[in-house]
Amino acid sequence: MERKPQNYDNHVKWDPAFHFFLVPVAGINVIVAIIHLIRFPSIASGWLLVLSLAFFVTVGRMRAYGVGVQDRVIRLEERLRLSQVLQEPLRSRIGELSDKQLVGLRFASDGELPALVQRALDEKLSLGDIKKAVGNWRADYSRV
After folding, report:
1. Of 105, 102, 113, which is closest to residue 72 (Cα–Cα)?
2. Which residues on adjacent β-strands are paired with residue 108?
3. Domain residue spans in the chain?
4. The pTM is what?
5. Of the four, 43, 106, 134, 141, which is 20 to 30 A from 86 by CA?
């Protein structure tokens, strides 16, 4: 299967089952439970709202846990990659990069990585600024 080249404008990954089914269903479920509680106030209606909120929070946490684990792996991979690509004295400054900076740097090609790391450190670039500064995008098709 041929994949579309990634860049800053199209790199966000949408999971249709999550973004367009689970999240809307969970949100609508909370709204329906609130309406039901207003129209038919009872302990059962209140409990239905609590369960609806629990489902909504669970859906959000599922995504957050997956993305959190993914970010940990990315940080590990990027630290390893930076230790191989960077020369001293920049290599000894890898620990100064924030987690978000490491996540953003994963899209930079090896050739542009040293200059971008230097900029990230000197200018305290944000995740978005780093991604916008990438010239030769290194695609990541394995994201959650």
Report:
1. 102
2. 137
3. 15-74, 86-137
4. 0.77
5. 141
